TrEMBL record:
Name used for this protein in its record: N-acetylglucosamine-6-sulfatase
Species: Geodia barretti
Names of required cofactors: Ca(2+)
Domain Sulfatase N-terminal: 7-276
GO molecular function, one term: arylsulfatase activity
Amino acid sequence: MSFMGWEPLPEDEVTLAQILAENGYHTAAAIDTPFYIRGEMNYDRGYQTFFFHPGQEGSPTRVQQVGNHESRDIRDRWRLEKDHNAPQTFANAMNWLETHYKEDFFLYIDTWDPHEPWEAPPYYSELYWPGYDGEIIQPIYGHWQDEPGFSAEKVKKANATYCGEITMVDTWIGYFLRRVENMGLMDKTAIIFTSDHGFYFGEHGGKFGKMSFDKREGGGLYRFGDSDARWAHSPLYEELVRIPLVVYVPGVEPSVYDGMTSVVDVMPTVLDIAGVSSPGNVHGASLLPRMRDSSAAGREFTVSTIPFANPGDEVRSVDSIRRNLVNSQVTTITAGDWSLLYSMDEGMSELYNLANDPAQENNIISGNLGVAKEVHRYLLKFMRETGVSDHLLKPRQEFRL
């Protein structure tokens, strides 16, 4: 799936929800992420019950009135915390659970928050920015120094609103868990919490966002929605690729696993907990053995990547605009203490020793070329094992310092 990009789910792809539904589980999802269903993405496949709350980025927030004479924005009705997107999504999940908690169920909750715009009720942001005035700051997806009118102080303020929205989401996760507890489900329900990526707030020379847009000829950076926008060099540092993963399974003693895992391990873990076999084409591995024995061997390496594409290829971004890729994008391969940020472009790859340099401030690739090449071989192994086409594999077989 690492080479799909923002594309519809292939017709022959079998989802976790499908497998569990076929094995007697009532499958339900409560989401507010519009990209599951927008443009026939088909990511609702396998769910027997599917709740979608509109209003997040890229999702219509304006509701047409009778006759289409005028429209109103649903966000105008956000008067209370419970009206916001994440609370609405968790409320949908809790309401469904009230009438299905005695069944064998698989409930998937996906909230776009804490994605920008960071607009939680102001009292959450005030926890991190006393006297917060309600300003909503959008990330610029690049170095803040390249955008007129930006400052380090503004990035810090944005981070406070981000933390505020995280706290709101955390609060509603707590409400949901209390509901699960009150229903007597904690001793017979597994719970998995994770995310997709982190965010830059001024690290690595002033990055603010995730990927980086190219600079305009007249100054400033391209933005989402600009049809002529181009992605610039976008390395994936630890701030982006190191994400939380919390797994609760009744009867398994709490522990911390220090080895490497990947989000692709979640599907086989769920199936293992449910006593269902994983399909043969699944690349992940169940985490249950490592949960029961934190000293158990884990992954030899992990790969974190923007969807594979070559310069000149047409790619579709989250804004659904198709663009031709100008620069090759970066793939991060982590093996033990080593983190290689690999680029096909000469002179653009980076190597860090995470034990000695966890903030990734000292690129030591020039003095450790042998290590870099060894870690690079893991990328080629990964691409072959996941069936990446020769069109994408061949240009990456050569390591250019």
